[in-house]
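Re: that chain you flagged

S.,

Sorry for the slow reply, it's been a week of failed gels. I finally had a moment to sit down with the sequence you sent. For the record, here it is as I used it:
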Amino acid sequence: MTGIVSYGVYIPKYRIKPSQIAAAWGKEVVDIEKSLGVYEKAVASVDEDAVTLAVEATLNAVLPLNFDLSKIGAITVGSESHPYAVKPSATTIAGILGLRKDLLAVDLEFACKAGTAGIQLLSGLTETKKIKYCLAIGSDVAQSRPADVLEYTAGSAAAGFILGTKDTIANILDFTSYSSDTPDFWRRDTEKFPSHGSRFTGEAAYFTHVIGAARLLLAKTKLKPADFDWAIFHMPNGKFPKEVAKRLGFSEAQLKPGFIVSQIGNPYSASSMVGLAATLDIAKPYTKIFMCSYGSGAGADAFYFKTTPLLKRFQRKNINNVQSQIQNKKMIDYSLVARNIINKFRI
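Prediction finished late last night. Pasting the structure tokens below so you have them in one place:
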């Protein structure tokens, strides 16, 4: 059975409040943090991108168990902010990490669910014993047009999960997907920033697909929401995951450990994966975990994980856990964000 052997997360230390972004653009938004359910978001530094974040997350995955990266036979990198339109992030990351050359390296792009799509794809390789260990990464320096509503929540982070069939800390018991051609969020190749369908991105896109994937998994596994100890949903803001959990029958208490959006914003492909990591940071052995990602365009991946006794050993050695990185922060003003935008997009 394929499972998680190790995992790591990287969250940039810089933070900014949505109200500061609104003030920088002369917008008077009352209680904006409360209305979004996002009180701070993580901001990548001027010398950080999806590749550097992914490398840091992978190194944090290596550290607790001193994992030998030469054992990795495949890597997927899910992101919608790959530094190059034509040049793989996966090979760059593999080169920096010193991975071997007989390696399957693939970039994935499906908005915010590209990272979890990698988990699905790689689990097939390990399950059939084609490859012993694989690395699935979700990493984004989330893109948003300056002054657009997305700028209030678009964050930065990465998560890397090493998958295998031996010495797992959590097993992947099942997964489902639900996809359709629903254009709620898009960016053409010649455009600098993404566009979105505003309120249309809620009901017709996020809720329809997350509920669709979740119900398929619950029916397939013959489980109820109450059978799970914890649950994680993609977190575009602080309201959507709570609402979709309520509609499906999950409680807010089940969301609590992995509900990181209020503190770091929405790091797109890393969102649900960082939430899963935060939940694994506190979970006990034999815990049942539900996770459902979402990607615009549109689709959702739902997973059923169950932890093993080896998780306790991992937790003791995982000094760079999610909460420690959330607490390691430095508040900034909008000038650093603007400088980053200018450097990246030359505007």
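What I noticed first: The chain has two domains: 3-169+312-345, 171-308.

Talk soon,
D.
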